Amino acid sequence: MTTTPLIGVSKSILKIKELIHHVANTCLNVLITGATGVGKEVVAQNLYAESARSTQNFVKINCAALPETLLESELYGYEKGAFTGAHKKRPGKFQTADKGVLFLDEIGDMPMALQSKMLHVLQSGEFSPLGSDQEYKTDVWVIAATNHNLEESMKQKMFREDLFYRLNIIKIDIPPLRKRKEDIPSLIEYYFRLYKSEYPDNQGTRPDSDILTKLCNYSWPGNVRQLQNCIKKQMILNSWEKIFEELTQEHPEIAPPILKENQQNGTQVYINQEFSNARTSIISEFVDLSTSSDKLFEDLSLKKIKKMASDKVEKEVIAFVLEKVGWNRSRASKILKISYKTLLYKMNEFKVLPPA
Predict the structure, then answer these.
(1) Comparing 84-98, 207-221, 283-297, which segment has the lowest mean pLDDT?
(2) For the chain, how long is the longest CA-to-CA vector?
(3) What pLDDT digit, counting tens, does each position of 65-83 carry?
(4) Averaged pLDDT of the chain
(5) Where in the chain is the domain with CATH 1.10.10?
(6) Could you say which of 93, 113, 165, 260 is the most buried, measured as most Cβ atoms within 10 Å of its Cβ?
(7) CA distance 258 to 272
(8) Which CATH class is domain 179-284?
(9) Distance from first CA to last CA of the chain, Å, rounded?
């Protein structure tokens, strides 16, 4: 089996690589968690590749892709005549993965009825194929993965606690790509080289520095898988700008940072639209953003803004307390821990008046 390397230079990826190195030869059950597309199977492959079982089978089964009855027969196998259509005996994944690795992808989607049977196999190493009274012994290293919050699933009685603790001996959590943006250049380079060899007749080019900055600041809701698809598409279209345009059209609510040019010195800076809007909303409470740049910069005295913000908070708190105590000024002054005279002064200054 060809193993995809775990690409990245972020602290989280380096920590995962170190953990893989320590865990690979222990054969302790591993639970890999993370959003769809972050690379959970890649981590499982690397665990397998570094282990003493790398010469044996690596068997994968997607627990979300099969209906309950079919998933059971795939896991444990069946005897001839066990059900309609069972024309011959067939071994299950536990049998074919014996002495190797069984990768249970999307374990959080396994039906409750099968979870108890899975627990039994993990505890005893024994199972019976469908339609058979004979028990088989298996020696598999189980690595499971999920994009579900299994702790929450347990609270909702959708995942067995005993199975969770049996699987969760070693936990490896993979952060989404937006939280490890320093890995993006390495991932682009790796997959560019890979797909360039797979599609030698296409004219795809590496992103220039401007495009790379945009790509690094994009949110990547589909994580590494989405990035891979973009690189493949670029191999065909040979236009990073077109790829980037499609990304923003597909997910306008998470549009990447917008490139703005500073009129003063011609420099270019990226401003995240969401945070930019939030900042603008706050600042607009204290200054007129529609004014000229020179006037705006005069108004943006930090000392002045701090005083205005402090006054705004004080006014809101004083009004809130007075309303709660029925405008009893003596009681309000005690709650606010200021003198009665100071309270009257601030009420006058901030124009805090009782309802007419």
Answers:
(1) 283-297
(2) 94
(3) 999 989 999 999 998 888 8
(4) 86
(5) 296-350
(6) 93
(7) 6
(8) mainly alpha
(9) 80
Query: Would you give the DSSP letter of residue 130?
Result: B
List the structure tokens of 113.
């009825």
DSSP state of 263: T
C-alpha gyration radius of the chain: 30
For residue 132, the Cα-to-chain-centroid distance in whole angstroms is 42
d(CA 299, CA 287): 7
Beta bridge partners of 141: 101
Helices (H) and strands (E) in the chain, counts: 16, 11
Phi and psi at 80, nearest 5°, equal -60, 130
Q: What is the CATH number of domain 296-350?
A: 1.10.10
Tokens representing residue 265 in the block? 């010195």
Q: At what angle are helices 329-336 and 302-324 packed, to 10 degrees?
A: 130
262 vs 210 pLDDT, higher one = 210
* pLDDT tens-digit series, residues 260-302: 444 444 444 444 554 455 455 556 666 665 555 555 566 667 7
Q: Is 156 exposed, middle or buried (0-12, 13-18, 19+ CB in 10 A)?
A: exposed
Q: How far apart are CA 198 and CA 127, in angstroms?
A: 42
- CATH code of 11-173, in short, is 3.40.50.300
Strand-pair partners of 62: 105
**Which DSSP string corresponds to 324-356?**
HTTT-HHHHHHHHTS-HHHHHHHHHHTT-----
Cα–Cα distance, 112 to 96 (Å, whole number)? 24
Ranges of CATH 1.10.8.60 domains, the chain: 179-284
Supply 292's token pair. 């000229």
Report how far residue 68's alpha carbon sits from residue 237's, in angstroms, rounded to the nearest whole number: 42
The phi and psi torsions of 130 (rounded to 5 degrees) equal: -60, 135
104: closest CA among 71, 127, 68, 139?
A: 71
